[in-house]
Structures are given as structure tokens and as C-alpha cells.
Specification:
By secondary structure, this protein is of the alpha/beta class. Helices cover about 40% and strands about 15% of the residues. The chain has a single domain, classed as 3-Layer(aba) Sandwich (Rossmann fold). The chain contains 12 helices and 8 strands. The model has no long low-confidence stretch (mean pLDDT about 95).
Length: about 270
């Protein structure tokens, strides 16, 4: 499943793809990742669902213009607009990392309606961000000028650290590739510099208004975002369920794909 379509939105080109038939499912990726983390799951689900993948502006195969903000607010607006472009009303949404904040804000602030929401190791409430994340936020322009080989080594080490079991070289290469080259390198540092915890604080104040089925999954060995955050998030969303996936870090898609797929299949409604 490849992102062969383009959606022009506010001067940006958003890469997206759709496959299958049946109830609609939309995936949201996080940072510093792309829709690649969800591709195998979308392909498998396309037998019973109409699955939708997209790269957020500034990520993956979508445009990476230096003058375009890539914060949570912009991404939430983009997702709500994209749902309208797809003609979807109440899809099932599955989100990872800061895709959680994006999908929550699209629902709470942009009026996007979902049939259900699954949140997987999400950035959704404060605090968030590693020491590296903070350092990059303080020096985005300087780091954007690093020699390419040093930059690539940094990104590889950073992304590898999201996995508890360790990523295969081929998978790591795929996740790193969009952040290399003339456009990718500065975009990597811009998207971190654009982080604004204000959006997470706003989300936290509004979570009690959520009135839809919510399932929270968390890698038990997530060193980027502790499972304690998952427990806090569960307490803030009325009726939300939480399950920990043992043997998985932040990139649960790679660390524990079978348990994660079992959870997704159990969560989504059976095709009638």
C-alpha cells in the first residue's frame, strides 16, 4: 500500500493512500516517523476495512516547506480537512505518538467525529519530550547545518532508541530516509522545534468531554513515554480502557506486531 494520492491544503501537498472496502479506518503516525509504521497493519486490515494512510505535512512523502508550521494545531486542522476530502464521517481512528494529540485535537477543536479512537503510545498530555528533543528545540538551525553523515548517524541512533527489541537494518533505513537530503535534514529539526506543549495542556483540559469508545495501548518497556502517562491518560478520558503490551517499547508496531494486530482486530467491529 503506497501513498499515490495528493491533497492540496493551504499550500501543502499531503500524500495519502486508500485501500480495501468496508468500514473506514484512518491511521495517524507520530514523530519522527511516517505512515510507514502503519503500512503492514493497513494492508492486512484492507481485507475487511477501507483503510486510509497519510503523511502529515512536513513528514514522509508530504511537502516539507520551510515556511510551513508543523505544530499540533496545524496537523489537527490538516487531519480534519483530509477527513472531509475523503468524505468520511465517523471513521475508526488509530493513532501513534503525536498522532494522538493530532487526532484528539481534530476531534475536540475541529469537530472531527469518530466511531472509535485507539491511542498507541501517544503524545497527548504534558509533559512530553526527551532531553535530546529539548536540545534540538533549542538549536534547530545549527543542527540543520550538520554534515549529512553526522546528521544521519544521529537520526539513526534516535529512531533506534524507540524500539525495545531493536530495529532491523531495512526497517531503520526506511524510517530514516525521509529525514535525509536537502529537504529532509532541515525538516527533521524544524518539526522538533515546532513542538508547543500549550496544545497538550489544552487537550488535557478538554479530555473529559470525549464521548466515544477509546482504547489505549502502551508498550510496557517504552522509554520515550512511560506507561505512567498511559495510566494518567486513561483517568482523564471517560470510559477509556488501557492495556500494556509486554516486550514492546515506543515502536510497538515493530517490537510486538502480532499482539498489536490482535488488539486492533479485537477493537474494530467485525465485518457484517
Amino acid at each position: 500500500m503506497k501513498l499515490t494520492e495528493r491533497f492540496d491544503w493551504q499550500g501543502r501537498q499531503i500524500a495519502w493512500g486508500r485501500a480495501g472496502s468496508g468500514p473506514a479506518v484512518a491511521f495517524c503516525h507520530g514523530t519522527p516517523f511516517s505512515s510507514l509504521v502503519w503500512r503492514p497493519f493497513a494492508e492486512a486490515l484492507s481485507r475487511d476495512f477501507t483503510v486510509h494512510l497519510w503523511d502529515m505535512p512536513g513528514y514522509g512523502r508530504s511537502s516539507k516547506h520551510a515556511g510551513h508550521p508543523v505544530d499540533f494545531g496545524v496537523q489537527a486542522e490538516a487531519f480534519a480537512a483530509l477527513l472531509g476530502h475523503w468524505g468520511l464521517d465517523r471513521p475508526h481512528v488509530i493513532a501513534h505518538d503525536f498522532g494522538g494529540a493530532v487526532s484528539l485535537r481534530a476531534h475536540l477543536n475541529e469537530g472531527a467525529r469518530y466511531a472509535s479512537l485507539m491511542l498507541v503510545d501517544v503524545v497527548a498530555i504534558p509533559p512530553a519530550g526527551s532531553p535530546f528533543f529539548t536540545f534540538v528545540g533549542d538549536h534547530p538551525d545549527l543542527l540543520g547545518q550538520l554534515p549529512a553523515y553526522i546528521h544521519t548517524a544521529i537520526v539513526r541512533a534516535y529512531i533506534q532508541g524507540a524500539s525495545h527489541r531493536g530495529l532491523r537494518e531495512a526497517d531503520l533505513d526506511q524510517l530514516v530516509e525521509p529525514w535525509t537530503g536537502q529537504d529532509g535534514q532541515p525538516a527533521f529539526y524544524r518539526q522538533i522545534a515546532g513542538y508547543d506543549e500549550r496544545f497538550l495542556e489544552e487537550n488535557e483540559r478538554e479530555l473529559g468531554r470525549i464521548d466515544l469508545p477509546v482504547r489505549i495501548l502502551w508498550g510496557a518497556q517504552d522509554t520515550w513515554l512511560s506507561s505512567d502517562i498511559g495510566h494518567r491518560l486513561q483517568g482523564l478520558i471517560p470510559g477509556a480502557d488501557l492495556a500494556l503490551i509486554d516486550g514492546a517499547g515506543h515502536l510497538v508496531q515493530y517490537d510486538a506486531p502480532i499482539p498489536l494486530m490482535d488488539e486492533i482486530r479485537t477493537w474494530l467491529p467485525p465485518r457484517s
